[in-house]
Amino acid sequence: MQQSTNLSDTSEMVTPLIAGIAVAAAAYAGRYSIRAWQAFKARPPTARIRRFYEGGFQPSMTRREAALILGVRESTPAEKIKEAHRRVMVANHPDAGGSHFLASKINEAKDVMLRKNKGGSGSAF
């Protein structure tokens, strides 16, 4: 009879201990979740717009494609087109390790946007 009383006392002492550990684990998990959510909300917003045109080229460049290459709108004023051309060309200039093909397409895009297209494709390639 004495042993059954000891087992009963032991299980009565362990049950609150397990419950306490479970409550503490839940509290730490909740705290971690709240901090993770706050860090997620505080991160800087990411732009969903690509910086430069990543698609292939059409046989004859259109104003739409030229605008995409330069990263401007089709209705952009000439001054902004020149600024965009310079920015894209600096990043892709052949002297700085860029491609001659891309440089010619960037120049063609500027010409199309400024309406300097002199018949046919202005690209050397």
Automatic annotation (TrEMBL):
<protein>
    <recommendedName>
        <fullName>J domain-containing protein</fullName>
    </recommendedName>
</protein>
<keyword id="KW-0812">Transmembrane</keyword>
<feature type="transmembrane region" description="Helical">
    <location>
        <begin position="13"/>
        <end position="34"/>
    </location>
</feature>
<feature type="domain" description="J">
    <location>
        <begin position="65"/>
        <end position="118"/>
    </location>
</feature>
<keyword id="KW-0496">Mitochondrion</keyword>
<dbReference type="InterPro" id="IPR001623">
    <property type="entry name" value="DnaJ_domain"/>
</dbReference>
<keyword id="KW-0472">Membrane</keyword>
<keyword id="KW-1133">Transmembrane helix</keyword>
<keyword id="KW-0999">Mitochondrion inner membrane</keyword>
<dbReference type="InterPro" id="IPR036869">
    <property type="entry name" value="J_dom_sf"/>
</dbReference>
